[in-house]
Design a protein that fits this description.
Length: 380
């Protein structure tokens, strides 16, 4: 008989999806004595991808029909707005304009029909005159208005998830770095280092169910599992995106997205607005070898040149470095975009293990829908 602590469910990673999963699982089993622990290597939650993004609630427009990104974004958007309303999370349904130049109008129409296939039925087509009334400073021939796109205070959202989960009995363990995971018939033995006081202490516990929601470290965590088939771990590509704040007065009322660029890993350098009305531009896309978050300040000239195609008044001196984020992509440079991967035992052969790979945008929007999907697969 082991003297180790035992938890029913262990979640590795306290990003937005890990926290949403903890909350949804705690709700599901709230009337039972089920123990849940969330491990996080950082001092606090949401320190990586979850806090270094555009903080946009996406509508579900661009993603291939029937993909997990499409289905979970559309479902997650409704769940997220409802959560924000119920728990007073700062957010605003500000709307988004996808703008097109003359040569891009046919591609814009394809986006419109693709969005409808995903169940996004509220897009409105604007001609040049209508667009000028919406956004006088924008130079484009046409646009799609997405009224259900919004912005959110992602920190407050994650804070609410953690608070709600802890109130339901979830244990949050920061400063906890997973070292090794041993798969056994009855579950898993998780070995980690607790490093809260800069004096690392080894700690091991048992759990019946394990959720790998480690984001940028998901592949690394998977490799620590002794029985994990190597072919079940997809290749990870770090894709960096820089953001620049706009120094002047924000001239926009909506988020502004140019047409997605062909053969790139993002949606183009767009204009987004936070809840304090600060305008920022980004992210770009740059594949990198390491997850480093330093901003390349010399990109301001390149940013300004691209932004000027739809906002002619922009100058490089108007841009101030803000922050950078890393997307955990499953497709490399020039490859077709990859879908979310929610990996169950039918792939890796380990009962009780769920792994999440490639949870980039629209992961924030889809977080509660992803969490509910995970929750449905756990029966205790």
């Amino acid at each position: 008989m082991s003297n180790r602590d035992r938890f029913d469910i262990c979640i590795i990673g306290a990003g937005v999806v890990g926290l949403a999963s903890a909350y949804e699982l705690a709700k599901k089993f709230s009337k039972r004595n089920i123990s849940i622990v969330v491990l996080e290597q950082e001092p606090s939650f949401g320190q990586h991808t979850s806090s270094r993004n555009s903080e946009v609630i996406h509508a579900g427009i661009y993603y291939p029909e029937a993909s997990l990104k499409a289905k979970l974004c559309v479902a997650g958007k409704e769940l997220l707005y409802a959560h924000c309303t119920q728990f007073d999370i700062p957010h605003k349904k500000i709307g988004k304009l996808i703008i097109a130049q003359h040569s891009e109008i046919s591609a814009l129409e394809k986006i419109h029909s693709g969005a409808a296939s995903n169940g996004v039925m509220d897009l409105q087509f604007l001609d040049k005159a209508q667009l000028k009334k919406f956004e006088p400073e924008i130079s484009a021939e046409a646009a799609l208005l997405s009224p259900s796109t919004g912005i959110i205070d992602s920190h407050s959202y994650m804070q609410s998830l953690l608070h709600l989960a802890e109130n339901l009995g979830v244990q949050f363990s920061p400063f906890s770095r997973v070292q090794k995971i041993l798969a056994r018939d009855e579950g898993f033995i998780v070995e980690c280092l607790l490093d809260e006081n800069r004096m690392p202490e080894a700690y091991a516990f048992d759990c019946s169910y394990l959720i790998n929601a480690a984001g940028l470290r998901a592949q690394e965590i998977a490799k620590t599992i002794d029985a994990m088939p190597a072919e079940a771990i997809p290749t990870l590509y770090y894709c960096k995106g820089d953001y620049f704040d706009y120094r002047g007065t924000n001239p926009f009322k909506h988020l502004i997205y140019p047409m997605p660029e062909a053969n790139t890993a993002g949606l183009g350098v767009h204009a987004t607005i936070d809840l304090a009305s600060q305008l920022k531009f980004g992210p770009d896309t740059e594949y990198v070898d390491q997850a480093k978050f330093e901003i390349e300040v010399n990109k301001a000239e390149v940013f300004a040149k691209g932004i000027a195609s739809y906002f002619p008044a922009i100058k490089a001196v108007d841009l101030k470095p803000a922050y950078a984020g890393i997307r955990p992509k499953l497709a490399g440079p020039g490859e077709s975009p990859a879908d979310f991967v929610i990996q169950e035992h039918c792939v890796h052969g380990l009962h009780g293990l769920t792994q999440l790979f490639g949870i980039e945008s629209p992961g924030l929007t889809a977080s509660l829908a992803i969490a509910r999907r995970i929750t449905e697969g756990i029966a205790i």
